[in-house]
Amino acid sequence: MNSAVAYQPVGASRGMPPESHLEMPPQDLRYKPSRRRRDRSTPAVLYARFILIATTLGVSTYGIYQMLQVVRFASMTVLQGLMISFFAVSLGWIAFAAGSVLAGASKRRDPLPPTLPENSLTALVMPIYNEDPVRTTSALQAMAEALKDIGANHRFEIVVLSDSTDADSWIRETAAIHVLRMSLTSVMPVWYRRRWKNVARKSGNLEDFVTRWGGRYDHMIVLDADSLIDAPTLLRLVQVMQADSTLGILQTAPQLIGARTFFGRLQQFAACVYGPVITRGLAAWSGDSCNYWGHNAIIRMRAFAENCGLPTLKGRKPFGGHVLSHDFVEAALMRRGGWKVRMATDCGGSWEESPPSLIDVAIRDRRWAQGNLQHMKIIGASGLSFTSRLHLGIGIMSYLSSPLWLLMLGIGFALAVQSHLIRPEYFNHDFQLFPTWPRFDVELMMALFWFSMLVLLIPKMLGLVRALLSARIRRGGGGLIGGIACAVKEKSPGVRIIGVQPARLPSMKAAIAEGKPVTLKPAATIADGIAVRRAGDRTFPLVQKYVDDIVTVDEEEIANAILLLLEREKTLAEGAGAAALAALVNRKLSLVGKKVAVLVCGGNIDVTLLSRIIERGLVKDGRLVRLRVHLPDYPGALNLLTSILAQHRANIVETDYDRAYHGVGLGETAIEITMETRGPDHIAEIISALGAAGYAQERVL
């Protein structure tokens, strides 16, 4: 089907292909429709949900109990009761977020889809509204040409759906689409349609496309005007849909790109570091009832048409009228119809852009807030799964949680004012011998505050740990020291950050001294993980801004640190991972009386190198010694020597005889004995005993 459609010459002259209608009836939220049979949740999903529920309930119960201890429950005032109520809701909200991230740790990687026959046609659908057509068409052209490079272009068509209301935008769009169509004449059909009436915004735009041309396609991949998906990911999405005939929506986890402003870069950094652990947790406990974010997702066309027609909500605006945040609702309706809604967390290759400023975010969030609060009219719809209702509730709480926090702070302020202006009543009863003292446990309240902050920061801490363990993210984020220094300094500017490099290749120290990256001569070091001849162009400005000092350590110091970690902490670290500890134990900086955190990471060390480090360390510590002893060359002489060594508890590891070298006379032999000892004092004791027995000996170093 697709190869016949893809290269029809009509594409160069028409805006859209011949219509192929699908019915998309509005769904009645009051009645439960007939649906496909749903599969039961897998054990992995149930386990993730157990972690989520246990964390949420455990943290909330502990926090509420401690809050009740702050004030006496029996003598609680109305304001105190209100504060505890708002605190319980707010703590439960952040506990849920922490539990979701922890549940994500149980999720396995997504399996690779099988290679299936190329018998489907997918529309790359991009709805636009007064957008820059050069940017949008450039992204579409890049995706089409990348698909051609992997031989999959004949399975896709580009469809641009314009809702633009500005006449200048129409002219620019028409010209840009013509250029795109001519550029992709031999690659992929390009279709373009502009609506005269912008009914129901984006959801209405997509509905018009589905009802008029949806029958032509098996799937559609919905894109935003700033979306970009690489070719392998596009092909993988189609293959996953083909492999699972019950899958209705497969959502990717897009990363932010293209930020130029400081605010945008902050958003991009946060999405890169914290976003993956959040989406992984969401996918882990949602299972087949996941969410849809409106773009960068593939949708089964007929399932969407049958189940996702949006009703018009009753009542006045802002809560009545057309559904604005349509994506959450469409995912819930798709699941209500028995189709799976899943999230692909491991495929990568999916990107979008973010608003460049706080004002732009506020404008976007105003629209999202209205749309998400509309979900209060949908969350009780008949037939929705509990998980779908939970997603709708999360969307509502995303905009209600901040006012709840503000109310709680306002009540706390009112309590503080009340304690200063209103005289407490010490004797509440007519017959009371002792006064009733007001109670407010400040120390417990501070402990509860720090506990709440810990719960709040759990997703960020786990995201940072994941980023530090990922070589790809470390390189893209300015290296290990760049990422750590930026994250720590932005939160706690008073913390000193010290960098450590091997003395043989101090490329960053040399760059700081010169004011620019310089290239050093090649050199070998056991800290090969940080052995770079030139400081990175991305890392260097971060180190200049955030790192307070850089010190160097030599090979012997690094080797000793590796051995120290093995013996004391039972931790195997490579040379680069032990460099920071080497700097600390060798007092490269004056840190007496300071609280110091040492980063130890990486265990990629060669076994033979590790054995040499251990042996050299034992020699240096006096726990391995080699002595050359001269003794008469007759039967039993060695027995007399070893008996002395045995009396002093020395364990012989290796022996070597020599009758021709080391100044050995006739009738004598020299024997080199390697022994395990307890330390320098034990070695001195052995040497003294051998001297007292008349043996000539020397220590081999």
Mean pLDDT, rounded to whole units? 87
SS-derived structural category? alpha/beta
Top CATH class of the domain at 493-616: Alpha Beta
CATH topology-level name of the domain at 493-616: Rossmann fold
Strands in their spatial order, largest beta sheet: 3-2-1-4-8-6-9
Individual helix count: 22
Q: What is the radius of gyration computed over CA atoms, rounded to a whole number of angstroms? A: 35 Å
Percent helix, as a range, is 40-55%
Account of the 3D structure:
This protein has 701 residues and is an alpha/beta fold. Among the domains are: 493-616, 3-Layer(aba) Sandwich (Rossmann fold); 623-699, ACT domain (Alpha-Beta Plaits, 2-Layer Sandwich). It has helices at 2-6, 43-70, 78-104, 133-149, 167-183, 201-213, 231-243, 262-286, 301-307, 326-336, 358-374, 386-421, 442-469, 471-476, 479-491, 507-514, 539-546, 555-569, 575-585, 607-620, 637-647, 680-692, and strands at 122-128, 156-162, 190-194, 219-222, 228-229, 247-252, 255-256, 297-300, 340-344, 350-352, 498-502, 549-553, 624-632, 651-658, 668-676, 696-699. It has a seven-stranded mixed sheet, sandwiched between helices. The longest helix has 36 residues, at 386-421. It is elongated and about 110 Å long. The N and C termini lie far apart (80 Å).
